[in-house]
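TASK: fixed-backbone design
INPUT:
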């Protein structure tokens, strides 16, 4: 399956359109919706198959952690662990163009793929009331990167969205033009120092004044520190050593299979997709890498995965995961 043809509907911004958008999201569909920054391409954040569809629709060649959009602070506290800094920033800037990267809460429902396998989660409550209605109608957090093809500029109108994604997503909710036009500011609260991961709609100075301290740069912490060529520490790195493009298991190896190629013979083998479906494989990738780590696998043979469609992103991630580490 390399293409995923859909009929893209333009939904009106009233109760019927919102209900329709919510139903589509609950059913695993892809719905673009307006926020105050840019149009987001939404999928139910708890549904790994739906989240895999975001990457496919955007033609994104690698998996980044996505921002999960939340309806209110109570719902946000179920996804991320709030310390006093997070409470203060949420109070000052939510709803609005600020994303907080927080440690994952034990009650979180955002799936591994939406977090790119990390133990943290990016959360924001959008200021756009239509966006919050859609999230409420979806019944849970909505993962949404900007609703454009990978490498294109972010969309500020439904026409921009359709120019890139018509036929690739289920619907666009028409909310007119986005007032802010640049993405949200992203602040990580994972370490002792709060860090600015991406400048955006809320100015740095406003955040620093609420925190009472300065924001460290993204480069000063774990987020962008390369620990191996092409491998960012912000991405989940398995402990196991991976052998890619393996045709068969060797002695002592566990297996990460695709399309039922490996004969297990007592070894631990997880199949990303027994039926050879790349969206299913993408949905399972990070949770299966974790499961192999949890089982103590030291060496893992990984079956060849076709480079087409979502396979490019899966292979990108596997090459990073297999790169030598200090
Ligand atoms: O304004 C916006 O933020 C738009 C609208 C649609 O809300 N959304 C957006 O989302 O730009 P997205 O998914 O493209 O932003 C992804 C970025 C990642 O590249 C990363 O920098 C950060 O959010 N991010 C999300 N979760 C993270 C995590 N757990 N750890 C570190 N960074 C994270
Ligand atoms: Mg973008």
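OUTPUT:
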């Amino acid at each position: 399956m390399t293409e995923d043809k859909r009929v893209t509907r333009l939904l009106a911004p009233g109760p019927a359109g919102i209900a329709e958008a919510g139903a589509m999201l609950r059913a695993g569909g892809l719905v673009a919706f307006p926020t105050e920054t840019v149009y987001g391409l939404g999928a139910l954040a708890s549904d790994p198959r739906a989240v895999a569809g975001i990457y496919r629709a955007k033609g994104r060649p690698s998996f980044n952690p996505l921002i999960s959009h939340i309806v209110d602070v109570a719902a946000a506290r179920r996804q991320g662990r709030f310390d006093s800094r997070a409470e203060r920033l949420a109070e000052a800037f939510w709803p609005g163009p600020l994303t907080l990267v927080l440690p994952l809460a034990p009650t979180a429902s955002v799936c591994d793929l939406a977090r790119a396998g990390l133990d943290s989660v990016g959360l924001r409550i959008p200021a756009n009331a239509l966006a919050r209605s859609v999230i409420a109608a979806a019944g849970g957090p909505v993962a949404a990167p900007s609703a454009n093809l990978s490498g294109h500029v972010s969309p500020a109108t439904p026409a921009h969205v359709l120019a890139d994604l018509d036929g690739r997503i289920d619907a666009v909710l028409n909310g007119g033009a986005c007032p802010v036009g640049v993405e949200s500011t992203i602040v990580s609260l994972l370490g002792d120092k709060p860090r600015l991961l991406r400048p955006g709609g809320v100015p740095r100075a406003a955040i620093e004044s609420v925190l009472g301290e300065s924001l460290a740069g993204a480069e000063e912490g774990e987020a962008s520190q390369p620990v191996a060529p092409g491998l960012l520490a912000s991405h989940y790195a398995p402990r196991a050593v991976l052998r890619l493009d393996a045709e068969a298991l060797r002695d002592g190896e566990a297996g990460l299979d695709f399309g039922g190629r490996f004969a297990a013979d007592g070894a631990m083998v997880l199949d990303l997709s027994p039926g050879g479906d790349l969206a299913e494989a993408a949905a399972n990738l990070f949770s299966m890498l974790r499961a192999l780590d949890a089982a103590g696998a030291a060496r893992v043979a990984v079956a060849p995965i076709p480079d087409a469609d979502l396979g490019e992103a899966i292979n990108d991630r596997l090459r990073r995961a297999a790169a030598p580490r200090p």
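COMMENT: The pocket of threonylcarbamoyladenylate (ligand 1) is lined by residues 35, 37-38, 40, 64-67, 97, 99, 101, 115, 118, 120-122, 144-146, 183-184, 186, 197-198, 223, 234 (CB under 6 Å).
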